[in-house]
Amino acid sequence: MSTPIKRVVASLCATAAITGCLVTSGTAVQAERPAPLEANAAALPAAADGRQHPTQPLNGYRSRPDLVNAGLTSLGGLPVSTSTEAFFGYQRNNTNGEYRESPVIHDSNGAPVWIGANNGPTCLCPAVPIRFRGQAAFAFLNSSGTWQVLDASYRKVFEIPGFAAVRNSDWFITTNPEGTRALVTGNRTFKARLPEGTSDVTVGASLVKEIDLLTGDVLFSWDSQTAGPGFVPLTDTVRFRSKDGVAHHMDVDAVGWDADGGILLTARGTRAIYKIDRSGAVVWTFGGKHSSFEPAPGTSAPVDPRSVRRNPDGTLSYLELHDAVGGPVHWVTVSLDETARTAALVTSRELERTAIDQDYGKYFLVQTLANGSPAISDGMGNAAEYTSGSDLAAWTHPKSGMGTNTLRAPWQGTPQTKPDLGLDMTSATGLSAYASWNGATEVAKWRVSVGPGTAGLRVVGEAARTGFETRVNVEVTAADSTVRVEALDVGGRVIATTDKTLSPITLRYGQLGGANSALGLPTSQIEAWQGGFRQHFVGGDIYWRADTGARVVLGAIAKRMDEIGAAAGFPLADTAKDSRGYLSQLLTSGGMYSRVLDMAEWVTGAEWTKYSAMNREKGVLGFPKEDVLVQSDGSAAQLFDGGEIHRASVGGRTRVVEIHGAIYTLWKQQRREGVPTTDEIATPDGVGRFNAFTDNRGRNWSIYWTPRTGAHAVRDEYRAKWGAVGWEGGIGYPVSEQGVRPGAYIPHQDFERGSLYPNANGRSIQVVQGAIRDKYGQTGWSAGWLGSPLTDELVTPDGYGRFNQFPQGCIYWTPRTGAQALSAQTREEWMHHGWELGWLGYPVTSSAPTPDGIGEHTHFERGSIYWARRPYQTGYWFVSGTVRGDIRAKYASLGWERSRLGYPVADEYEYARGKVGQRFENGLIIWDARTRATTVQYL
């Protein structure tokens, strides 16, 4: 337990009359109180990503990944005792907030020699040294309520089942010196109502069994709650200790044989010492509510006794806590007269209690030293040995709250397994070999050899054993692939050998700089994974497979791969980092990307195929912003910095398309209407780009973009019409969305060289383009006097002109006359004269109101059309006519309709032979064909 104390255990309980003790010989030399030994190292801190990692390589347990408590290790390389003593107990490990225990054996420096498998959170399972069929052994209670006995080779050689697996319940085991019989305590749970209770609770009854270790037969059995002479009523309990839902009744602390073969035990719950005969009857009780003995003057009955044992002289010794936390602790020896039923105090030694936790509910295991003094373990890892007086000879306590019961016993462990070897490359040539051998006590040194194979090994390092695990730093070459560790005893004899191949993962780690690299320290052993291997580190992982080699995965990507598991696949390359510090990782399942410390996005499946075709993160989509999001309708979308990959079933076929840039921005502004059905495609002229979409009613539409026009959607009939007139090769690219102009109610869409309007009759979409569109705009578009178009732009019969018809007129265009808008009345009159093929020709002006506001005139290439509306009695009558040639010239010279003549009321007619006349409201113009002279006659 402490370096100053070097004892050799002489025997195990020289006679069966000594209960549950280990007697040691030798005299303790105590000059001053020694400093306590910290039996446990501090718990390991958590890494930023939540993993457990060591603060220094020594604490890594690289050679034993299956050991639970990495916090329990050697103390800075203290020298190991050469004695054959060991200390038996348990260790506690906090795993995700849940305490779990496992049996453990320590050397005299507090370093573990053997650590057993974790037995779960339901059971307190310390290792207890015993004798088994003449040999040293130990036992522990596992989580299923079975005592397991292990020999010096750590093989299970015996089991004692039949106890409730209740954590912190009664437990104790002791054997006779020959190791042929064992006394075992345990628990049986049942439902009962406590004396002052109002409802039934789970109660723990105490069990004691004597087991034949040769046959396994139960030689004796006692149950505190079985009716009969051994029954102890619940009303005898002074305090029920409730733990994990069980109210403990007697709470037996220790048990052993009396000289006559009866059983002695102490019970924490009833605060008494009992003797039970072989029939199971209670012979007497000392202390508690119903003591069988009358104390002599100066003698007190036990108040809170622990760990009673019968001394060779017939007296009883026990530990007295006085039921006072923080109060005195005494080692009491009494003489009981079982005939007179009196008790007399022999000695009472007050023990220094600094080293122990005096909570009444704790376990107190007591061994008797050769000097007659106790060695006490309080169940919380505190342990103390005393001098023949009352002073501490040595003591130890745990760190970080990890409890360790400690019982001293001789031990030489000879495990049947081979030593374990962990390997870490610390640089390109530096190798740290971590050697351990769980349970071995003979190892004095470790020797390390390396070479290209087992036949060519050379010794490169040797180190004295420094604790459970020893680190040996050596140098290797690129040709070295095999590492051998040899366990040497104190005489230099090789007692065990383990060979290990340097894995590609270990070699790659060394090439990166080992612990000084971005990966930092390892947090796991190399493990099989997906047909290869992997190892976790503070800063990432290394994966290896024959077809990929050793690949480094860093940061949040490594963490995300762990979270996803096997579906993430295997890395195909090292993690790449760009100038911004963003990470990208190629995987067999796709790719993974990270731009922040603790987040990574996964691109896989069909989305990955499309993303790869788009040059991945170097393309227009950039880095992913999230994982793929699957909608309730089965469609899916994955967002990227520059766009989106969309997957949906369209027309019975799954389409995976990308959408990005300005087209994507517009689509988002339009509330992601519809489903994209194509990637962004270049237009035939190479200037524009577009994506096609469809909605839930099967209607198709597109968004087009060019550098000069931006992005605009073209929908439904408008898109069909645009296609009919040649797409962008016809009226150019869209420059607006479908919409209604101010003051209008008819929708339209503008393009670079034209506009689309619904037909005035509502049956189709018409195109108005070029100069005709410009003129249409001057008239006020569809809100103007022309209204919505009735036709597309059409070609005139002479092939020279172009025109659109409107409800209230038309617009005609020729290269020489430009675009002119005609009113319905003018159009009607012009039609009567043969349109442009008639004598009027094409219009050279648009229809315009006359200055007096009651008429309208339009000039043509070879004439003019006038019309006016005159009031007549209760209504209006219209005057109109065409004017041409010399008559038109004369009319113009007089001032047109502003002259005395007024408006024409008829077309020209034959006035007389060789003469033509034209009537006006207030007169007549006559033209002589022979002289070309004109005369005016007024009415």
Distance N terminus to C terminus?
146 Å
Question: Main sheet?
Answer: 6 strands, mixed
Rg of Cα set: 52 Å
> Can you tell me the CATH architecture of the domain at 8-61 and 87-410?
7 Propeller
Task: Give the total of beta strands.
Answer: 70
CATH topology of the domain at 8-61 and 87-410: Methylamine Dehydrogenase, Chain H
Outline: elongated
Total helices: the number is 8
What is the top-level CATH class of the domain at 8-61 and 87-410? Answer: Mainly Beta
- Which oligomeric form is depicted? single chain
Helix content: under 10%
As residue ranges, the low-confidence spans are 1-62, 65-82, 398-403
Keywords summarizing the entry:
939 residues, mainly beta, Methylamine Dehydrogenase, Chain H, Immunoglobulin-like, 6-stranded mixed sheet, 5-stranded mixed sheet, 8% helix, 42% strand, elongated, disordered N terminus
Protein model, in words:
This protein is mostly beta strands and 939 residues long. Among the domains are: 8-61 and 87-410, Methylamine Dehydrogenase, Chain H (7 Propeller); 420-502, Immunoglobulin-like (Sandwich); 828-938, no CATH class. The chain contains eight helices and 70 strands. The strands form 17 sheets. Strands 11, 12, 13, 14, 15 and 16 form a six-stranded mixed β-sheet that branches. It has a five-stranded mixed β-sheet with strand order 3-29-28-27-26, with no helix packed on it. Residues 1-62, 65-82 and 398-403 have low confidence and may be disordered.
